[in-house]
């Protein structure tokens, strides 16, 4: 969320087109009205210069039992054919599994995963096994 706010949303013109308010045990508030920027929610933006580009910024934790329903709601109203989805996620360097010492890794670093349908060139090296993606990005 911080990366999107600092580098993506400030770089070009986006407009807010929707908000999803979440509540689970990790949320900071239980109020369902008057959503504040400090509350737990997901904002949806549309690129003004290209309305086919949408961005969802999740500033909250989506619990495991909410992930499937959340994804169905987000993607349920979108056309699936020709849809390209890019997911940005972070994890602590201590969780990264590598043969070399994590102390010698240049941080931050970027790794990618892709499906077999994605035929384009990826912008960075692929994530090595046995590393895994979990939580909402995995869903």
Automatic annotation (TrEMBL):
<comment type="similarity">
    <text>Belongs to the PSMG1 family.</text>
</comment>
<dbReference type="InterPro" id="IPR016565">
    <property type="entry name" value="Proteasome_assmbl_chp_1"/>
</dbReference>
<dbReference type="GO" id="GO:0070628">
    <property type="term" value="F:proteasome binding"/>
</dbReference>
<dbReference type="Pfam" id="PF16094">
    <property type="entry name" value="PAC1"/>
</dbReference>
<protein>
    <recommendedName>
        <fullName>Proteasome assembly chaperone 1</fullName>
    </recommendedName>
</protein>
<keyword id="KW-0143">Chaperone</keyword>
<dbReference type="GO" id="GO:0080129">
    <property type="term" value="P:proteasome core complex assembly"/>
</dbReference>
<dbReference type="GO" id="GO:0005783">
    <property type="term" value="C:endoplasmic reticulum"/>
</dbReference>
């Amino acid at each position: 969320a911080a990366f999107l706010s600092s580098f993506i949303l400030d770089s070009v013109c986006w407009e807010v087109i929707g908000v999803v308010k979440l509540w689970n045990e990790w949320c900071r508030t239980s109020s369902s009205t008057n959503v504040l920027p400090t509350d737990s929610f997901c904002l949806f933006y549309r690129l003004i210069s290209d309305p086919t580009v949408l961005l969802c910024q999740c500033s909250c934790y989506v619990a495991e039992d909410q992930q499937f329903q959340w994804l169905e709601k987000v993607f349920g109203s979108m056309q699936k054919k020709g849809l390209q989805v890019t997911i940005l996620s972070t994890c602590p360097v201590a969780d990264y599994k590598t043969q070399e010492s994590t102390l010698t890794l240049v941080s931050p670093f970027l790794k990618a995963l892709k499906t077999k349908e994605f035929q384009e060139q990826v912008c960075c090296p692929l994530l090595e096994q046995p590393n895994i993606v979990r939580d909402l990005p995995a869903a």
